[in-house]
Amino acid sequence: MDLDQLAERFRVTRQQSEQLCAPLAIEDYGVQPMDDASPPKWHLAHTSWFFETFILNKHLAGYQNFNNQYEYLFNSYYNGVGDPYPRPKRGFLSRPTVDEVMGYRHHVEQHLHGLLAALAPDSPAAVEVAALVELGINHEQQHQELLLTDLKYNFGHNPLAPRYVTEGELSAGVDLAERVERFHEFTGGVVQVGVDPHSEGFKFDNECPRHDVLVHPFRLAEYLVTNSEFLQFVEDGGYQTPSLWLAEGWQTVMDQRWQHPLYWQQQDGAWFEYRLDGLYPLEPALPAVHLSGHECFAYAQWKNARLPTEFEWEVAARDVAMPGPADGAWLESGRFHPAAHRQADEAPIKQLYGTVWQWTQSSYAPYPGFAPLPGTLGEYNGKFMSSQWVLRGGSCATPFGHVRASYRNFFYPPDRWQFSGLRLAQDA
Amino acid sequence: MDLDQLAERFRVTRQQSEQLCAPLAIEDYGVQPMDDASPPKWHLAHTSWFFETFILNKHLAGYQNFNNQYEYLFNSYYNGVGDPYPRPKRGFLSRPTVDEVMGYRHHVEQHLHGLLAALAPDSPAAVEVAALVELGINHEQQHQELLLTDLKYNFGHNPLAPRYVTEGELSAGVDLAERVERFHEFTGGVVQVGVDPHSEGFKFDNECPRHDVLVHPFRLAEYLVTNSEFLQFVEDGGYQTPSLWLAEGWQTVMDQRWQHPLYWQQQDGAWFEYRLDGLYPLEPALPAVHLSGHECFAYAQWKNARLPTEFEWEVAARDVAMPGPADGAWLESGRFHPAAHRQADEAPIKQLYGTVWQWTQSSYAPYPGFAPLPGTLGEYNGKFMSSQWVLRGGSCATPFGHVRASYRNFFYPPDRWQFSGLRLAQDA
Amino acid sequence: MDLDQLAERFRVTRQQSEQLCAPLAIEDYGVQPMDDASPPKWHLAHTSWFFETFILNKHLAGYQNFNNQYEYLFNSYYNGVGDPYPRPKRGFLSRPTVDEVMGYRHHVEQHLHGLLAALAPDSPAAVEVAALVELGINHEQQHQELLLTDLKYNFGHNPLAPRYVTEGELSAGVDLAERVERFHEFTGGVVQVGVDPHSEGFKFDNECPRHDVLVHPFRLAEYLVTNSEFLQFVEDGGYQTPSLWLAEGWQTVMDQRWQHPLYWQQQDGAWFEYRLDGLYPLEPALPAVHLSGHECFAYAQWKNARLPTEFEWEVAARDVAMPGPADGAWLESGRFHPAAHRQADEAPIKQLYGTVWQWTQSSYAPYPGFAPLPGTLGEYNGKFMSSQWVLRGGSCATPFGHVRASYRNFFYPPDRWQFSGLRLAQDA
Amino acid sequence: MDLDQLAERFRVTRQQSEQLCAPLAIEDYGVQPMDDASPPKWHLAHTSWFFETFILNKHLAGYQNFNNQYEYLFNSYYNGVGDPYPRPKRGFLSRPTVDEVMGYRHHVEQHLHGLLAALAPDSPAAVEVAALVELGINHEQQHQELLLTDLKYNFGHNPLAPRYVTEGELSAGVDLAERVERFHEFTGGVVQVGVDPHSEGFKFDNECPRHDVLVHPFRLAEYLVTNSEFLQFVEDGGYQTPSLWLAEGWQTVMDQRWQHPLYWQQQDGAWFEYRLDGLYPLEPALPAVHLSGHECFAYAQWKNARLPTEFEWEVAARDVAMPGPADGAWLESGRFHPAAHRQADEAPIKQLYGTVWQWTQSSYAPYPGFAPLPGTLGEYNGKFMSSQWVLRGGSCATPFGHVRASYRNFFYPPDRWQFSGLRLAQDA
């Protein structure tokens, strides 16, 4: 454990959050366009609250909170810390201002650097604090992605369709004709999935422990489903055909009057897609994105295929090399929209990491022997293990280095404001 | 008609709206803390939309809209102009920014000044435009008050209890013991109320025509009900006694779990009130404010009294001199909270104008022979004539000069975020 | 006061309630098809509860309740008696059975007859009890009408369209061409309306006291609006034209997706109406019925007319002779649908009484000097005096003898499951 | 395949449904006390609709529907048959009457017997029809249980607490002190679960195919959790401790204000339970019942245990002999409440079958290679495979012979009106 290196990673991560906000007007920081989507300002404050509450308050003697009311205002869902400020009202907090939140951030950062500098390397306190800082860094990375999805929900529903970044080239040079639906076969068997909690490197409690599962032979699609493919589903009446949908999905289609993916719109017969670089004609070669689990399920039914299980995905992904920060698959690309795949030399299954989160058919459940983090931090993951599905792989809004083969993301099957898409599977 | 004078009044009114926003942080401009309460930015834009839509677009040849989408975004409720942007989503419009809205305001102002300057005095066009500008000024004055009530709802529900202005002295030198409940008697008879639509001076269509009504002998309280008096109702179990309430009011008490007026709170047994200058111990001598019609009705029942009718109020008020801008009763006082009454020499009934809007028991209904404004502007008032009650007199957030003896404000009886209070009446 | 006569009127009224249920299957007694519409069984029980609670429990020594839990189960809205069983759950009470409720009725009747027989005529007790029995009889008559409107809501929404009675001839021999829209003029002035509470004969507290009002000259339509006339409004796009509606009405049109009156339906271009005698082609000459106040308002706007005030209606009606029980206008006709007018010799304004309740533009408010009944019975009428409009005249489902010129019925303007229609008025 | 035997089983099953209704008053047949709970009459009609729609209409030449509108009225959720009549409105169908529904039942039965008699044994048509009749019988058995749970919801919420059957002795002779929490260990390994779709005997599509799963070593409680044990959880503040609950479960606790199991109530400090034989003091030795999945999860957390997976349960149950119809565990006992366990000679794990459905932690998901029934019947099970949990074992309201070791029932984790309880598990 190298505390200097950790301090540097902390610094870089915190900076990255602020850089993501550079294109924002002050007005953009406060908007909560739906209950699930928090204002950017709240993300900036809550990630600081996390360091303050779980590290500074407990491990830095004499630490004074920046503002005692923030404990209440910026608690997300930790009942162990007290009743949180109501989630649907986050958009009403015009105060504290952005400046004050930035002050809060820097106050927390300064004291955290102080704490790290004061720790004796390899002391028990250093080990404990380092683990918490590592958790806080990963927590902040998750909120970087959420900040983007939530901002997109805001901008994407504003009739003015504001741009967050300048236009990106996302499918240049890609030959759609080559992007055919092709499956590769896997043999299955009893395989090990998950991570040993005592292994090197950071992992969340929900990835542990490493354990055996039985995977049946299966086939997995080479590419993610594209806009071009998903459009065929739309135009074939997929959103009007109840037999393709789970009952709960069909209810959602009717209640929400879904007719197409979230950010698509039709004008005079032509299809457009809102992206963080603006509103553009739908590009056929790009991966379909912002799909709910239900839409993915229905699409798979329509294709006589299915979603993979999370373990099938992990089996396919575990030996595949991840793209690097310069490969256009991650947040670092600065495009904030899934690009068409262009790397040449690779394992048979493409686009496993980055680009879009891939829905699986697996319900989010505890692994056998799952042990949540001790204390209030045990609320981080475990209490959400009902009614959600697992997604794998990361997205174009995920910071490079944040995900792994064993990484489990989770959302409710009707959720579709994340950078989520799909890869088909079949029984072998 | 003096067009120069009108242009000056236009300029002053527009400036006053912006001055009201001077204490705001950019973050405060966008918050919509409930469906009925719009963001300050929206008020600034909508009042400009009003001038653009009803004057510039129709009377200024070659006028180019500042932004064509604003017609949709900033339409409040005029179906004649097209479907408005959904009211509950006004808080999601981080764009246009405050700067852009200010640009919109100045664009509209510049062209309106140009139009006024180009009109031949007393030409039919000048007469028509002047009437519309007069309406627009009064419209903007109404939104100045709403801007304050909506901002207060935001600040008053923020756990940080931000201050909009510095602390005001509101009851200094007032002897509460003198503020006893005292009634004065009126004889009634057939009297004239309302205004002749062809008379001098501005009036809304809902005040017209002047007509006879029969008023029975009645008694009216000398003072508005104070915090001290209303607190007795609270402490006597008023909010727990269904027999005091209208059925609809009692339903509201139970649904909303009302236990006291909107901005009151109890801490360790002591009562506090949030005001726009901050959170303070409840001052007994100040008028009770932010009461719904239902709370006023229940209080009156408890006192064996009743609310006045709107015509009783008008009879009592018609010959009473209004306080001036320096008398502390109006918006111009800069205190934004109802002050205790301190003027010495006056008609028997005090506090008729300014201070707080006074609920009446009269349903908001058309006068006999009521004729709405022609065209889309006919939607201004008339279509709201159901389920609302009339309030009279203006408040500490009403600009001086805006109201008259015949002026009719109207809200739903459960509404309580306005500067509304009560004066008791009885049959003689 | 003749106690024998009162006992006989009580007997006849009670019997009439049961006769109205003669066509019902046991299954029909329990259904509550919407929150406002109670099951027939509940009406039968609640009207007995009224006699038990307000008379037997207080005036018959040693009276034993039929079942102590009924006090809770069959209380409608009297908070003075305790929290009532929740209104929206009345349809869940399969027990007590119809037989048990009939047993309850007869228990109450037997004891009430016993009480009346035991009273010394003209004793103070007799005077007090007689007044309460009179109130109970009128109360039961109101519930007879509600029983029919609520049953109709149930049957009229059952895809099987069951018949309550056999087909009635309702417009035979009526020449629609004569039923032109014709207005008669009234001079107005200061007139007396309402009733003296100490006068002979039964009246509700909300009709009192008799008092002066000023009525402006007005004109009133000779006939009620017919299906034929209302159909023109429908076909002229009345339900698609926001400018005709009050804002609250238009909101209702959109929320409820209203396209035509409640029991109308269109099949292959032809219009049908569900009546209690079944589903029939819409008869042009019949009065339009089951209209909300908002639909009546919009229709009147479309005709450049307005709804009458309740006092205009009373002025027109006070000297007009009422049709008798054999004239086809009342419940006693046994047709349970408004018939076309056929009487020859009459005042200029037809169909004032019976047929359909006539919406007025008057908000339901207390008369000057209004004094509710003492004690818990004060909740009968007074607490509903907000957000409702007054209807006048009675309907084809009102028992003969129940209404008067001064009788005030009241419903919320969006309500349309009553036998309510409209008569146009204009300023003179 | 013996068609006579099948016809007899059909006859007996149909008769059993009607016998379950023998204690009902006509009034009880129509009540729908919540959206999920259908009226008894609807169950009687819908089970007939199933035979009519999927067998008679397709396989009996010249069959005339009893009433063409019933296709719409009594369709539960098969979109392939057309839009069903809205589920929450089933309680509004006072017509058809009970008599008419019985006529419908007998019409369907008569024709189904006719069809069976006319089929050539072992002909392809006979094979196909027999499979459908078998499905229909199992379908009707499921609705027998639902009829009871739905009726109980109605009776159990009626303040009169009506009795469906006479009092049953349910815990006589059981020594609670012996019923200690004791776990038995299982080794796990790769085991086969589910059923081969081509094997003998009836099974639902969701139990197929038989396939390998990997089960980790585990421990399973000998007995179901009792009222006595669950009461300790209640009294220890289980319903006030968020850390014991899944986030979704805690939200339910707060939204629904849960403080104890569904049919428990406290009077003057003593606990009572409503059962179908009436309201009785809570019997400590009886299994806790009418628990949601969330309550079971929280209880297990509080015990440092967990719910079993559905495969752990199946492993434990597959070789255990089922109690017979006379053993008091099934519907046939006629007690309709889970009895305490009294059989002497048995496998280590008691009460696996009948008594109460046992919640598992397994999300209801398709088995690898799952193939829904062809055509519209494919909607029977598959489309509900999201957000639900699997329950195993049957209950005291399940007909004997209906369930198997592989049988999968499924409900949403907040559902608690079924006869559902829990058995604890632990990692070995």
Number of helices, counting only DSSP H or I runs of 4 residues or more of chain A: 9
Distance separating the two termini of chain A = 45 Å
Global geometry of chain A? globular
Main sheet: strands, sense, barrel of chain A: 4 strands, mixed
Widest beta sheet: strand line-up of chain A: 10-9-8-11
Output the structural class of chain A: alpha+beta
Mean pLDDT of chain A: 96
Write the topology of this structure.
The structure is a homotetramer of 428-residue chains.
Chain A: H1 3-20, H2 40-59, H3 70-73, H4 98-118, H5 124-157, E1 183-186, E2 189-193, E3 211-215, E4 218-221, H6 227-235, H7 247-256, E5 264-267, E6 270-275, E7 278-281, H8 293-302, H9 310-317, E8 357-363, E9 389-392, E10 409-411, E11 420-421, E12 425-427
Parallel strand pairs in A: 8-11
Antiparallel strand pairs in A: 1-4, 2-3, 4-12, 5-6, 6-7, 8-9, 9-10
Explain what you see:
Four copies of one chain form a homotetramer. Helix content of chain A is 31%, strand content 12%. The first copy, chain A, has 428 residues and is of the alpha+beta class. In chain A, strands 10-9-8-11 form a four-stranded mixed β-sheet. In chain A, α1 (3-20) runs antiparallel to α4 (98-118), α1 (3-20) packs parallel to α5 (124-157) and α2 packs parallel to α4 (98-118). The mean pLDDT of chain A is 96.
